[in-house]
Give the backbone structure.
Amino acid sequence: MNSNLTNQVLEFKKTGKGYPALNKNISMLAYTYPRKRLCYSPDIASTFFLHFYPKIPYLISRFNYQGISFESFLLKTIRLQCRTIAKWTQKKEQKTKIIFNPSLQIYKCYHTDTEPEKKDPPCIHIDHILKRKKITKKAMIRRILYLLLKECNSVAEDKIKAFSNYSGYDEIWLKTSIEHMKALTWHRNRKLTALIYKKNHALTSLTEKELYKNTEHTPHNQTHANRIVKLHRRLKRVSEKLSNKSIQPSNSEIAAFLGIPKGSVDSGLYYIRNHFKKNA
């Protein structure tokens, strides 16, 4: 332990000098203490240090000498933070073991797709269309354009260029149109990401509570049973929201952007999908 650490802190707060040496001494103590005194593993100690290091300037500014040394103040803070980090790491490891436990196989139920599951049959992807022979009918090309805008979140830049050569549409206009469609769906992507996180969290928590209920026999089992019921409801509610959620632009938005009736987009997408399904 650095016996002169308190003097270094007081000197720095008085003159504003000597911060590099002070920061180094505090960092060494924060890095070595969890391993030497608390017998933490190197992984947990490193995780703690990464979490603790940005807080050093705040601890220095907060310290006021009132008979208690900075060393005592620092070690008390380190012990509290270590317990918090250890609990967080342990909880994270437990959830990881639950997720990837072969006997439970809940990782197969995890929702990782960027596009929600659809009740309707999946549409023909634009990549499949561009691999086919060139189509010269203007009506068919317009229908492919509707599909391109519909699938704006999954169309790569090389596909846009290929469609420009394929259809005769200006490449810059196509890119601008697709970016406009993506901007319309940006907030839906954020909501979808939040729903996926909620579903996965509810699934993990539910499995964890059910395992605890089956392995532990305590007076608090009824509390866990009530918690399991609530988690089942939450999982069902979030799953229903995910099944109805779409990040694709609506047909109305595509029609408004192109300045055409919504019915033209509806019928165009219907015919283009049916055409390529029949000729698949």
Observations:
- Residues 5-99 form one domain.
- The chain has a mean pLDDT of 78.
- The chain has three domains: 5-99, 126-185+248-278, 187-244.
- The chain has 13 helices and no strands.
